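Sharing in case it's useful to others searching the archive later.

Someone asked me privately for the predicted structure of DUF306 domain-containing protein, so I'm posting the question and my answer publicly. Question first, with the sequence:
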Amino acid sequence: MGNEIEGTTWLVEEIGGTPTTGRKPELAFGDDGRLSGSTGVNRLIGQYEVEGDVIRFGNAGSTRMAGLPEAMEQESRFLAVITGDVTYSLMGDRLVLGPVPGGAVPAAVLMEQAAVPVGEPVGEGAGERVGEPVEGPAPGPAGGLASGEGEAPGPA
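And my answer, the predicted structure tokens:
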């Protein structure tokens, strides 16, 4: 393919002008036209092709785990951005997708993962640091915590 985003990995900083919260979505553009990453809740795969200043996203699929309502809403907005043909530009260590339809606000702003120092936080919660393993209780069904581990206490 030989394009400037081939072989790069990005963390999503903003979607439609709103900063991402919780675990940040991530996109990796493979050398072979394959796309992989995370929505922050679910893993995703697909294909991409770059033509000029347009990324053509296609054949996307993802796991179907449930998350908190805010995380699911953020996931939905992110998946809408990486559908079909999307203009892009590189600005230093930022990949700007979009703009949003009918506006000047970028559809998404991503920071190149290599630009995040190892050990720096990339989201809220344990194990969300670049280059460090995820630690904590094992996930249970639908991505929840297994056997009630780590549940927050009820109201006092």
